[in-house]
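Title: Prediction job returns without error message
Component: structure pipeline
Severity: low
Priority: P3
Assignee: unassigned

Description:
Job completed but the reporter wants confirmation the result is attached to the right record. Sequence as submitted:
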Amino acid sequence: MEWTRLLTPKRLGRDDQGGKAGHTSFERDFDRVLFSRPFRRLQDKTQVFPMPVNDHIHNRMTHSLEVASVGRSLGKRAGYAVLERHPELCDYNAADLGDIVAAACLMHDLGNPPFGHAGEDAIGAWFREADGRGALAEMSAAERSDLCHFEGNAQTFRIVSRLENHPGQGGMQLTHATLAAVVKYPQPSSERKVRAGVAHKKFNYFQAESALFAEVADAVGLRSVAPGVWLRHPLAWLVEAADDICFHILDAEDGYLLGLFGYEEIRALFDPLAGGEPPMTDERASVGWLRAKAIGKLVDECVATFLAAEDALLGDGLGDGLARPLADQIPSAAALARVGTQSRARCYKAPEVLRVELAGYRVLGELLGLFVPAALSGGVTTREAKVLDLLPAAVRAGATPYARALAVTDYVAGMTDGFAVRTYRELTGAALPEITGRHRGRMTTY
C-alpha cells in the first residue's frame, strides 16, 4: 500500500472536493461528523454505565470526543515521522494525518445501538432466534449472517456511507481516507473469525454496503487478501489504539468516581503508567493528574510502536499476520492490561450495569418482535399495518426482506437509551404516550 493513495482527499459520492480555502478536506470530515444527527444522539447512549446519575461519567459522546482528541495526537505525532520518511507526501502535513484519525475516532461509535455492546448482542440474539424459526428464510446466507451477528462497526460504515445527509449518494460524503481509517475489520460478516489476527475477528460492512466498501478500498489502495477481505488502512491501527487507551483508562476513572475503586486501588493501577507523584492533595484531582500522565505515556509508546511497524502495516507480507492491537505491543501493555482486567471485574460486571443491560435485552427484543414481522409481511394484519405507519418510510420502501429488516435495525440501533425505553413502555402499554400536538411533541431520534 502507498501513502499517496491512502491519504486521498477524494470523497465518496461526489467528484469535487468542495469546501473553502484554508479548510482542509479532512477538517471538513471532522466537522460533518461532529454536527451530524447520529453524533448528537451519542449523548444519550451508554458507554459502560447506563443512564448514570453522576454528570462526570462518560456517555458515548464524551467518550468519542476524548478518543478523537487522543487520536489526533497519535495521528499528528506519527505524521511528522511518516512525512519525513516519504518526501513524495510534500502536499500533506502532519496535521492532515491527525485530522483523519480524529475524524475516524469521532465517528467510530455512531453505529452502536442503545445499551452499548449488550444492545449489539440483543439485536443479533433476536435475529438468531428468528432465523431458527425460519423467519429469515427468504434471505441469503450472507444476509442472514449480517442480521444474526449484528455489528455496530458495520452500522457505523452504513450510516456515514449511505444513510446520513445524502442517502444513496455517499451519505456524509466523507473522504475515502477517513472512511477507510474508521474500518478496523475490513471484511463482511461471512468472513468473521475465519482468519487469525485482530483485524479479522469482527466485520465492518453489511452486504448492502459491499459495493461502497469495495469502492473505498480501491480508492485508497487497500491490499486485498481474499474476495471481499482487505488489510486495514494503516491509520486504522491508530484509531483502534486511541479507543483502547481511552476505554481502559477512562472507564477505570469512571469506576473510581462511582466508588467502585478506592483511591489507593486506582493509584496502584495508574502509577505504573503515570510514572510520578501527583502535585496536589485532593484525591479526585490527583486521579485526574494520574490519568493525564498515563494517557501521555501510552500515546508516546503507541506512536513509537506504529512507526516501528510501518512497513508491516503497509502490507509487505507481514501486515496480515499482525495478531494484536498496537496497545497490546507497547512496553506498558501489561500495566494497561491490568487496568482493563480490573475494569471488567469492577465496572462491566457491577450489578447496576448488569441489571440495565439485561433490561436492554427485553426492551430491544420487544421492539424488534413488534417491528420486524410487520416489516417482513408488509403489514398483513391491521396491527402490523399500524406498526408500519409508525416506522420510517425506508422500512416500507425496502425492495427485499433483507432491505426492510436492515431499515428496522437502522431505526432501532439509532435510538438513544432513553428513547428506546420510552418507546418500549408506550408500545407495550406500560405507559401510554402523551398527546401533546405536533408543534410541541417530542422529537424522534431518527
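Comment from assignee: result matches the submitted record. Residues 440-446 have pLDDT under 50 and may be disordered.
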